[in-house]
Design a protein that fits this description.
- Helices cover 61% and strands 3% of the residues.
- The protein is an all-alpha fold.
């Protein structure tokens, strides 16, 4: 295509979308021509946007397949840079979901390049910050054909070993399982070394299925006790509230029967994180805890207006929007 042709048609506004402006443009799914993005740019978009829902011209499966192929190609050329990008976006909370960053780490962990694998395992605690993330990583790696190599065992073992006993106890209690994996499974496969008596007690407690023993953190014992409170008698509710306040128990360890009681949520609210708070606004409103001018409403507003609180939870603006729309509609996507 000559410059004269281009100039004439630009002046007349007659260059159709079905023709390229320059020779380095490529045809897109809509039949028009665009400039092709490089692989790292495509990865950046995937890490932030994901592929949920697809687009007008491409389905979710097709986009997911293309992005996985792109990640695989990057592992052979600039895998360490891909891991670095995934880690930075995950750490900064720039994506509504962490799934894509975890997938990149899983792909890097099965790379043929030793440096890429080392980068993936080094970034594991930065990207997989909670138990759910770790279970996702293990499952993604399994789907990509990865087994339990020595490096894999050491990386997962370090995830358990490097946490304080209290922090580890909370992770295990709050995030019991995901995608068919549990803390018990990973402990049995990775064989972490106990750095102290408390860690040893936690490992034994998990592998034995929750049997109590010496040196088990009181937090885990409290989780056991509250899980057995199934009645709504005043004495039961009072005991549950006492346990929540004393040990800062999260919602995930409570039996379902307690989650319809306003006083229970009132006890949970002071230590509730940003993500949990946004997700449970509807529930707390439906049971009457959040109401006009109530103490709970004032506390919720104070938390959500606190920049440090929101930043600590890595809350993405899109998740705030989804939370607001869900709250306005009166129900979530699943009812």
């Amino acid at each position: 295509m000559g410059l004269g042709y281009l100039r004439d048609h630009l002046d007349q506004g007659k260059i159709p979308q079905s023709e390229p402006l320059t020779s380095d443009q490529v045809k897109n799914r809509a039949g028009g021509y665009v400039y092709e993005v490089d692989r790292m740019t495509q990865l950046n978009r995937f890490l932030i946007l994901g592929t949920m829902g697809g687009t007008y011209y491409a389905g979710e499966r097709e986009m997911t397949r293309e992005n996985i192929q792109n990640i695989s190609a990057l592992m052979d050329t600039c895998g360490v840079d891909a891991v670095k990008m995934a880690t930075e976006i995950s750490q900064a909370g720039r994506a509504p979901k962490n799934d894509q960053a975890i997938l990149v780490l899983a792909a890097a962990s099965v790379s043929k390049d030793l440096a890429v694998r080392k980068a993936a395992y080094a970034a594991l605690p930065d990207v997989c910050r909670i138990g759910t993330h770790l279970y996702q990583f293990v499952e993604y790696r399994k789907l990509l054909g990865g087994g339990w190599s020595r490096s894999m065992r050491e990386a997962v073992a370090s995830w358990f070993q490097d946490r304080s006993a209290e922090g580890l106890a909370r992770q295990i209690a709050k995030y019991k399982q995901r995608g068919g994996w549990s803390a018990r499974d990973l402990l049995r496969l990775s064989h972490p070394k106990a750095t102290d008596e408390a860690h040893s007690a936690i490992y034994k407690w998990v592998v034995s299925g929750g049997e109590t023993g010496d040196a088990v953190p009181e937090f885990l014992l409290a989780c056991n006790e509250i899980s057995k409170i199934v009645g709504k008698a005043k004495s039961d509710v009072k005991r549950a509230i006492d346990l929540i306040k004393k040990h800062d128990l999260p919602r995930e360890v409570l039996p379902t029967g307690l989650l319809s009681i306003p006083e229970i949520w009132e006890a949970l609210l002071p230590h509730m994180g940003a993500t949990a708070l946004i997700r449970n606004l509807g529930k707390m409103t439906s049971i009457g805890l959040i109401a006009p001018n109530s103490n709970a409403t004032i506390e919720v507003a104070r938390k959500l207006e606190d920049p440090a609180f929101v930043k600590s939870g890595r809350i993405h603006p899109l998740n705030v929007l989804v939370g607001k729309m869900t709250y306005d509609s009166g129900h979530g996507q699943k009812g």
